[in-house]
Amino acid sequence: MTENGSAESQIPENAGIKVLTQYIKDFSFENPNAPESLKSMGEQPNMTVDINVNGKPLETEESIFESDIMFDATLSNKTGTLYKLELVYSGLFQFNNIDKKIVHPVLFINCPQILFPYARQIISSTTGNAGFPPLFLEPMDFGGLYAKKVEEEKAKQEASQNS
Q1: Which of 32, 92, 111, 130 could join 67 via S-S bond, C-beta 3.0 to 4.6 A?
Q2: Among candidates 123, 29, 131, 38, which has minimal Cα distance to 79?
Q3: What are the residue boundaries of the structural domains of the chain, listed by start?
Q4: Do the Cβ atoms of 8 and 16 come closer than 8 Å?
Q5: 3-state DSSP call for residue 101?
Q6: Regarding beta strands 46-57 and 80-96, do their DSSP bridges make them parallel or antiparallel, or are they unpaired?
Q7: Which class in CATH covers the domain with range 8-156?
């Protein structure tokens, strides 16, 4: 893996990742206290954003993989929830000549990097169209997220072996 966390340096020159399609798999936006929540947000609201990545091969095609980015964003203040947004943005990718040893990091790092700008646009336009300031997510370090997930899995395995 390269310093920035991508598997780019390990992908042979004749290898390739082809984006077959991108799509919204699941999407929900709730504005439970409208129109009161839009009149005045009052004090500085509290924003929580959780992002997770998932990926898997398609059962019918060994070279085609699905990658998902899951977003969960909640804006609240002392009066309650101003909005709750849930988005699963996915893509189908065809891997050509990619070593099986690096399929997992490519699926969990490179593919989400391709999907992220499109999901970010959906989130910012939805929150803006709902009457709130648009939520502009900062660029993500999917390499760091992947490394953290690998470490957590390793710790789980060690804990289960020691019990």
Answers
A1: 111
A2: 38
A3: 8-156
A4: no
A5: helix
A6: unpaired
A7: alpha beta
Nearest 5°: phi and psi at 106?
-65, -45
The three-class DSSP label of residue 155 is helix
What does the longest C-alpha to C-alpha distance in the chain come to?
A: 57
Chain segment 42-94, per-residue pLDDT in tens: 678 899 999 999 999 998 778 999 999 999 999 998 888 999 999 999 999 99
Contacts 24+ apart (CB under 8 A), 84-87: 84/28, 84/29, 84/30, 84/32, 85/28, 85/29, 85/30, 85/123, 85/126, 85/127, 85/135, 86/26, 86/27, 86/28, 86/29, 87/24, 87/26, 87/27, 87/28, 87/119, 87/122, 87/123
